[in-house]
Amino acid sequence: MAHPTPGFDGIPAAAITHGACNSWWTGAERSHCAGCCRTFTSLKTFEAHRKGLRCNEPTDVGLVAREEAFGPLWGKPPMSEAERARLSALWARGVGDE
Length: 98
Ligand SMILES: [Zn+2]
Ligand SMILES: [Zn+2]
Known about the structure:
alpha+beta; 4-stranded mixed β-sheet; two-stranded antiparallel ribbon; 2 helices; 6 strands; binds zinc ion
């Protein structure tokens, strides 16, 4: 597969690419993991999947994928009130520390 080139092939000119996996994404706040080559909504959700200083399955740390033009983007799920309360307690404790 050819390397993605921002500005061509339907890829926005502002896209960010990772040559090792030919991924691309948009949004300066995104975090792409060089270990597992998943793309996260933010540094915070990236750090959540790095719980224990390794790459976890995003679903194991409470993240969900939403399909973007560039593929799955992992982030926090849309939440019900109860779920929001439960997860905000989890996030407040810092899911990165064990
Ligand atoms: Zn990873
Ligand atoms: Zn990558």
